[in-house]
Design a protein that fits this description.
Order of helices and strands: EEEEE
Number of domains: 1
Radius of gyration: 14 Å
Shape: elongated
Oligomer: single chain
Number of strands: 5
Length: 65
């Protein structure tokens, strides 16, 4: 977890997730993260009824505020 700043100088918590290569089927992990601003929950779902999915060089950038 990191903090990024907007043009007004206000801080916002951000998180980055990088996946080099993966085959995902029916997953739904989540993580509760306490930040200086508030507690946030990050959740990633893949697969399920849609079937397996593949990720190559995937970067997920999440933030709040």
């Amino acid at each position: 977890m990191h903090t990024d700043r907007d043009a007004d100088g206000r801080g916002h918590p951000v998180a980055l997730l990088g996946i080099g290569r993966a085959s995902l089927a029916d997953i739904c992990p989540s993580a509760r993260v306490r930040t200086p601003v508030e507690t946030v929950v990050f959740k990633l779902t893949a697969g399920g009824r849609a079937g397996p999915v593949r990720a190559d060089g995937l970067v997920i950038d999440g933030g709040c505020g």
